[in-house]
Design a protein that fits this description.
This protein is an alpha/beta fold and 378 residues long. Helix content is 45%, strand content 12%. The chain has 16 helices and 13 strands. Helix 13 links the parallel strand 10 and strand 11. The longest helix is centred in the middle third of the chain and has 19 residues. It is globular and about 70 Å long.
Amino acid sequence: MLTQTAEKPKPTDEQLEIYERVSASPENLLINALAGGGKTTTLEGAMTFIREPTLYLAFNTSVVKEAEERQNNGTIPSIVKIDTLNRLGLRCWRDGNGKAQTDPDKPFNLLKAYINDQVTGREDRRAANESFADILHATKMAKHLGYIPTGKYPNARRLCDIEGLNARLETPLTPFEQEIVDDVLFTSIQASYAGSVDFDDQIYMPALFGGSFPRFPNVLVDEDQDLDPAQHALLDKVAKGRLVAVGDRWQAIYHFRGAETGGVDKLKTKFKMQEMPLSYSFRCPENIVKAVHWHVPHMRWIKTGGTYDILPTLDAAAIPEGAAIICRNNAPLFRAAFALLSKKRSVSVAGSDIGPKIIKLLGKMGSPRDSSEVLIKR
């Protein structure tokens, strides 16, 4: 359990050094930002020292929307182009290959059609359907890793062979499953050229098969620890000037979806980047930071105080306002959330919009006219 208060401290010596380096030197920079290290504030501060057109690439849409809002209010300079990697990739593919429409159901539909039309024999079709989810996952992982079926598109930039793909799957493909993955992937590539792309294709196709790529004197990349090999390949095509990448090796959590193993250090080596730290936590005070020194011994703090407790049991009435409950798994967090809600406490579950889910659940449990006491008893 964590207890903290919010305040806005002055820039740290590390942030000021980064601003100075961005302003005075054209070298590529790798900013290693620990959790709560003021990454967004530092990026915004660095942008104000850049006088040339800049491309800022974020990992997801929500970050881009927030950045665009800050640009609208003048915090981020107008010379900065803000994009997600996917949106950039789709534009590069369209500019180089003509119109393309995004179909998020494309992978599922192609695999389903393949099994129905191409897999003959009752036993083979049954086996394919039983392995449907695994085959679909392998097809998606192939795009993240940059796998192209052997012998297909020899002029494309193949990043991974079948052994590399199997190494990243929980269970390696059988020869039968591998044949399906190869055929479906080949059909998917053909469909992309015909104008139908899914979300993974937005990176996979321009990164491996080509497109029309913009040129910016400066490229800023957020959450570099989460980039997969195909995203690294796309970045290679775009970052022809100075590259400033921000991330945290300790928060590399997307290995399951293809994130590059050791990607931060590979990026640092490839672009000959000078590494600079953001080791102060703006989010957590002293005692909380010290509690994680067993894992990240060089993390520092801005604020003093704070409390840290390991709760053997949850007493909702004893949880103070402004506390954060951290758990490795989601299920205990939701149990804690419902316990607090039962005590009429306000709750926010990070990464999950719990309100609409509760409303939907209550709708299934009873009438909108039922009282909260009645619903809780149910």
